[in-house]
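lol forgot to send this yesterday, sorry. struct tokens for the thing we talked abt
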């Protein structure tokens, strides 16, 4: 039975003294709840042993030996020391805070004026040693608010390095750090239900001058601030634990303001100025050697005649060469690993990943569900302890139980392994931080809300009546949940349930990893539950990697089945570590038919468009199905040969190559096929000329143009292989060789195919049915088809009228606008775009961005070459008392204060800080056995005090505690293997055992410090986070290299798994400009050389290609196409395709002998423009349109949209802008070509009237009107 005590208050008197046993009112305490005996008596003068213990535990009460009085026995001091050691383990990093925390408890327990501060409110009768005594079970402690506020301020910012959070969050109950106040802080310390207080203490905080009971004097002792030395001479706290100690850190410089001229966007103003200048130049404008051509023409004519004369031998030889190359496909390696595709082996991120994986093992694998329950009703809960709380629909017991049921089902996954010859369960592959060597199923790291209840249905269903302030109510799972989300590191809640907040595997469950979709840490109103299974990661060639993938597949199967169950109350998204790669591979396989259909459409078009169709009766004779098939086979064989060759030499392929290279080569090859075939059809065989000679002569005219394009493109792609990105490099190599092989096969195999088809057509045999002949004779006049007459009669004359030529202004405006837009294109590639539109991962990414409130973890990793064991080395890293204010961890702390610029949200955990705290004699963590068989060996904190009375490191006076080099090396391995518990929460196992790597000599060769990014939503934020982290790491590296003994190559670098994929965006803009530039140079050089050093034609060619490329990027900005590695591949491709649109027409203009620029432009547009339109544009467009139906967003955006833009822009620039440009600025008449043609006219007068070739010496109008040639006038004009 409890007794009421009548208070007595006098100076120099005690209220209680000595210990009176265990408090029977306290159950489930985490420490022995020893209570004092009521004893109103004078304070005792302390003898030597008693005095020394008081001086050690409560130095602020020391009045000198022989002069110190106290109200506590030696036993009470030992119990107080043990109790304070629990808080000291967390607070000792800030000595003044640890002292102020102990100060009040020393005063209420031991002060010689105890009766002035303490007012006993409840006692009980106890029987000790045969005597009945009154034991104190509750009292009031009167404290000045001046003292309480100062003590609270000194402790409020002390950090827990392992979590990055505040220590006070574990000492303020449900209020955590954010809502903690001095009163709430002391209320928690005096609440016996918290498992740490042996009795109830009602702390009364009294403002100065406020009334108090008679005799009471509120305690108002001296309180050192966190920026002041403690009473024992310890240094002030560090900046990380005490804001007053922080030096002035100027905020990070803001990003540069947008370039402006006045109030106008500066870039826009520059672009407008360029446009106006070009327009002015255009308005003001309004007021070559034949040797190369002859040599190439003669060479290709002889070659073509030879190939056409021996078609079967040519086809056989070509087939043998292709087969020899293609045999290499047996050894082809298809790269699907995103790391291998987009991160170069010698890139910085890849080297950092290799370093991390070598020393720390790869990142653990994440398998996760994010569950919601839309429409599920929420409820209000009036808690006895915490007041009114609003619970969302997802935070209800029945849903939590359903989540636990699903979690248990997943944890029970098992399967047989032939490799291990036994059944495999989760414990064989799970990440078990606190028992990594021999884990059980319960040791596996599973983060979820049920872990607050140790995954126990019994704990979730637990209820108990509890009385608080005279009110009795039932407390249940909701009270425990509210407590734990505010104090996740607690081993016991403050309810009468007495449950721990720690998970079943022994680690804390941070609320931001268990629930999502809340505001301002209002966790009970969360909209989502998060369930995460963490598995170990293994090398791909490891047996356990197969086991992990098998487990993850079974996990996906279970979750997919659960999602389809109509009884499921959850709406959720999920993913496994393997999901992203699986889905990318799936969509690639599913979209292969789309590409096949695309190629089939192109084939049908080519087969139909190449036909002459002079009459319906000859439709099967004049069709070119076999020629079209031959052209497609030439493209296919060139791709196979390229892939086979690179497989021979060990360069791996990728799905991008399989999808894009055939498409590119088909676009390039089809154009050459159309030019060759159409030229052959339009040209009349000369008298006495054989079919083979005819084919050779036509090839001699068009092959230089085909060589110009193919050579430009192949050199372009070979130079593109200088890219550092593996996917871009391999694509460029494969494309370059495929283009070369395509040209070579066109000069051989396709010439042979055309020769055989010409024989067939001359004999009037049907295209597919060779045995069937048609009696209708072949027309004598060469067929010009529909497009050529249309171009000659309508399109070219209208386009090149003086009025319509002004359209060049529109293109100049579009070019300048695109320059402006180019600087606003979004750089990056969000992961979602790599997935098919029906992928379950899209929903996961949506949920991730919507509900996750913390970003990915990032490690700051140190390399070999830094001596952590010296005092200077530790001070350069740590952030507690005595540390360098600009240490590694302190700089990271500064960065977290500007999360919008640093993208860091939570400071780095520091094994150095916790190791120093672990060694501190003020805690019980590191002691040595003083009895038994293990004398002198390490003694765990769980062992009784009398067994381990010596600390590992002796206490220091007026000197910051640092271990010696020998102590550092001796105790560090023990610290890393020490399991954290209530007595010693600083143990390093689980948090740091894999964070420090030592060689056989004990030297630290690698270590890491983990921080957290802010939630990153898109690739731009991921890229900027990487940039900021690297800048911070470089700053830290410079500082740490200044420490004596540090190696010059020592480095600190940041690492997280996402950096691999986003590093490319740090340099992709300059790299892209370089790649495109090196592609443009050969197009100019080759054009100049093959046109007889015609620099003007080369420059006009180059200008048009540049405009197409720039305009493409401008349209990308408008159409939401991001700039990334896939875009870069397409832009490099765009340069190649632009060559096809431009170069043929430029060459035709340069070699035309019409008298004026306009007439030459008309002729080139009609003759070559029609072939370009039919061969490039119309070949690409049908196939591109088919890609719009692909499932993969990547294909829809970067292959359909982007290729459509490239083709349309190439078409309008090649057939609209370029002819007009040439009509104004094209090169002058090539007199050498003119003289050569006049010579040919003189010797072949009889054939002149039928001549239709582009090189005839007629004006465009003469050829249309049938007038005789104007050779003499042209010659005069040329002179």
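and heres what i got for the seq, position by position
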């Amino acid at each position: 039975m409890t007794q009421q005590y009548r208070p007595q208050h006098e100076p120099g008197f005690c209220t209680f003294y000595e210990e009176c046993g265990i408090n029977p009112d306290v159950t489930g305490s985490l420490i022995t709840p020893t209570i004092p005996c009521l004893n109103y008596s004078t304070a005792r003068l302390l003898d030597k042993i008693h005095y020394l213990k008081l001086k050690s535990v409560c130095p602020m009460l020391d009045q000198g030996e022989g002069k110190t009085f106290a109200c506590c026995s030696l036993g009470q001091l030992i119990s107080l020391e043990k109790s304070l050691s629990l808080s000291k383990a967390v607070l000792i990093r800030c000595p003044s805070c640890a002292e102020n925390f102990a100060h009040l408890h020393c005063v209420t327990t031991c002060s010689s004026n105890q009766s002035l501060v303490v007012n006993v409110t409840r006692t009980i009768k106890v029987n000790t040693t045969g005597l009945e005594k009154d034991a104190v079970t509750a009292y009031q402690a009167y404290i000045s608010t001046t003292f309480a506020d100062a003590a609270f301020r000194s402790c409020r910012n002390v950090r827990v390095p392992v979590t990055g959070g505040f220590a006070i969050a574990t000492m303020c109950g449900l209020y955590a750090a954010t809502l903690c106040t001095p009163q709430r802080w002391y209320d928690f310390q005096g609440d016996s239900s918290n498992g740490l207080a042996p009795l109830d203490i009602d702390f009364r905080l009294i403002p100065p001058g406020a009334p108090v009971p008679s005799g009471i004097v509120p305690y108002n002792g001296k309180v050192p601030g966190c920026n002041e030395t403690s009473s024992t001479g310890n240094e002030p706290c560090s900046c990380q634990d005490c804001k007053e100690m922080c030096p002035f850190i100027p905020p990070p410089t803001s990003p540069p303001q947008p370039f402006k001229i006045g109030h106008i966007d500066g870039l826009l103003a520059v672009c407008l100025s360029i446009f106006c200048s070009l327009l002015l130049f255009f308005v003001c404008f309004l007021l070559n050697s034949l040797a190369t051509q002859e040599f190439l023409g003669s060479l290709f004519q002889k070659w073509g005649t030879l190939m056409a004369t021996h078609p079967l031998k040519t086809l056989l030889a070509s087939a043998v060469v292709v087969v020899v190359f293609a045999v290499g496909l047996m050894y082809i390696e298809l790269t699907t690993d995103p790391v291998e595709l987009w991160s170069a082996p010698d890139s910085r991120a890849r080297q950092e990943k290799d370093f991390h994986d070598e020393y720390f093992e790869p990142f653990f694998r994440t398998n996760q569900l994010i569950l919601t329950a839309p429409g599920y009703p929420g409820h209000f809960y009036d808690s006895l302890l915490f007041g009114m709380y609003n619970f969302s629909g997802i935070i209800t017991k029945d849903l939590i139980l359903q989540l636990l049921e699903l979690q248990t089902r997943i944890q029970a996954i098992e399967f047989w392994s032939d490799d291990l010859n036994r059944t495999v369960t989760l414990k064989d592959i799970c990440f078990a931080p606190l028992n990594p060597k021999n884990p059980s199923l319960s040791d596996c790291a599973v983060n979820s809300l049920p872990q607050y209840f140790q995954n126990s249905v019994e704990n979730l269903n637990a209820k108990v009546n509890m009385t608080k302030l005279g009110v009795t109510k039932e407390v249940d799972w909701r009270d425990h949940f509210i407590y734990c989300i505010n104090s996740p590191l607690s081993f016991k809640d403050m309810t009468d349930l007495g449950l721990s907040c720690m998970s079943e595997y022994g680690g804390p469950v941070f609320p931001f990893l268990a629930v999502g979709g809340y505001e301002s840490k209002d966790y009970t109103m969360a909209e989502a539950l998060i369930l995460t299974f963490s598995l170990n990661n293994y090398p791909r060639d490891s047996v356990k990697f197969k086991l992990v993938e098998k487990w993850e597949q079974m996990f996906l199967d279970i979750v997919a089945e659960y999602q389809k169950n109509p009884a499921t109350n959850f709406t959720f998204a999920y993913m496994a570590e393997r999901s992203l790669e699986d889905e990318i591979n799936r969509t690639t396989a599913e979209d292969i038919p789309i590409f096949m259909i695309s190629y089939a459409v192109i084939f049908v078009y080519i087969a139909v468009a190449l036909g002459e169709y002079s009459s319906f009766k000859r439709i099967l004779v004049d069709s070119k199905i076999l020629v079209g098939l031959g052209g497609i086979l030439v493209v296919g064989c060139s791709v196979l040969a390229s892939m086979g060759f690179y497989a021979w030499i060990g360069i791996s392929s990728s799905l991008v190559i399989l999808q894009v290279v055939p498409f590119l080569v088909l676009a390039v090859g089809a154009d050459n096929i159309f030019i060759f075939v159409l030229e052959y059809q339009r040209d009349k065989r000369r008298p006495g000329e054989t079919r083979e000679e005819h084919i050779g002569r036509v090839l001699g005219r068009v092959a230089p143009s085909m060589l110009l394009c193919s050579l430009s493109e192949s050199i372009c792609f070979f130079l593109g292989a200088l890219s550092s990105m593996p996917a871009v490099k391999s694509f460029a190599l494969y494309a370059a060789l495929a283009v070369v092989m395509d040209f070579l096969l066109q000069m051989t195999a396709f010439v042979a195919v055309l020769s055989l088809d010409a024989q067939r057509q001359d004999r009037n045999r049907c295209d597919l049915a060779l045995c069937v002949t048609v009696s209708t004779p072949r027309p004598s006049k060469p067929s010009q088809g529909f497009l050529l007459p249309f171009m000659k009669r309508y399109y070219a004359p209208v386009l090149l009228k003086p009025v319509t030529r002004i359209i060049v202004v529109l293109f100049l405006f579009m070019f300048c606008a695109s320059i402006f837009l180019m600087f606003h294109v979004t750089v990056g590639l969000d992961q979602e775009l790599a997935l098919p539109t029906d992928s379950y991962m899209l929903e996961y990414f949506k949920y991730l961005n919507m509900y996750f409130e913390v970003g990915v973890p990032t490690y700051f990793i140190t390399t070999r070459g830094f001596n952590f064991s010296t005092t200077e080395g530790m001070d350069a890293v740590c952030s507690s008392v005595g540390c360098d204010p600009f240490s590694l961890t302190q700089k990271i702390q500064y960065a977290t204060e500007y999360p919008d610029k640093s993208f860091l949200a939570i400071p780095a955990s520091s094994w150095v800080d916790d190791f120093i705290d672990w060694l501190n004699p003020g805690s019980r963590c590191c002691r040595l056995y003083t009895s038994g068989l293990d004398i002198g060996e390490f003694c765990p904190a769980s062992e009784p005090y009398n067994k381990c009375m010596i600390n590992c490191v002796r206490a220091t006076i007026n000197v910051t505690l640092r271990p010696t080099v020998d102590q550092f090396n001796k105790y560090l391995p023990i610290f890393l293997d020490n399991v954290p518990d209530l007595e010693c929460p600083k143990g390093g196992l689980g948090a740091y055992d894999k964070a420090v790597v030592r060689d056989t000599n004990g030297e630290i060769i690698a270590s890491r410090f983990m921080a957290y990014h802010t939630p990153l939503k898109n690739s731009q934020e991921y890229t900027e986070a990487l940039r900021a982290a690297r800048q911070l790491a470089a700053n830290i590296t410079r500082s740490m290299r200044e420490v004596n003994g540090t190696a010059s190559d020592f480095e600190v670098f940041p690492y997280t798994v996402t950096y691999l994929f986003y590093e490319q965006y740090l340099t992709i803009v300059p790299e892209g400009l370089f790649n495109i530039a090196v592609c443009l140079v050969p197009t100019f050089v080759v054009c100049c050389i093959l046109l007889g050093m015609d620099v003007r034609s080369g420059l006009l060619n180059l200008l048009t290609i540049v405009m197409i490329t720039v305009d493409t990027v401008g349209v990308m900005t408008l159409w939401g196409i991001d700039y990334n590695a896939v875009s870069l591949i397409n832009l490099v491709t765009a340069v190649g395709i632009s060559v096809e649109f431009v170069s043929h027409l430029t060459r035709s203009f340069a070699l035309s002998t019409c008298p004026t620029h306009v007439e030459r432009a008309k002729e080139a547009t009609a003759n070559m423009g029609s072939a370009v339109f039919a061969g490039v544009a119309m070949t690409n467009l049908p196939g591109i349109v088919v890609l719009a139906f692909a499932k993969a967003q990547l294909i829809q955006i970067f292959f359909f949209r982007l290729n459509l833009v490239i083709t349309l822009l190439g078409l309008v620039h090649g057939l609209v802008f370029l002819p007009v440009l040439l009509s104004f600025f094209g090169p002058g008449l090539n007199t050498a070509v003119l003289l050569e043609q006049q010579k040919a006219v003189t010797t072949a007068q009889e054939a002149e009237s039928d001549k239709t070739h582009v090189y005839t010496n007629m004006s465009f109008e003469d050829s249309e009107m049938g007038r005789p040639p104007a050779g003499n006038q042209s010659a005069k004009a040329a002179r």
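Confidence is low (pLDDT under 50) at residues 283-289, 1246-1279. anyway ping me if u want another try
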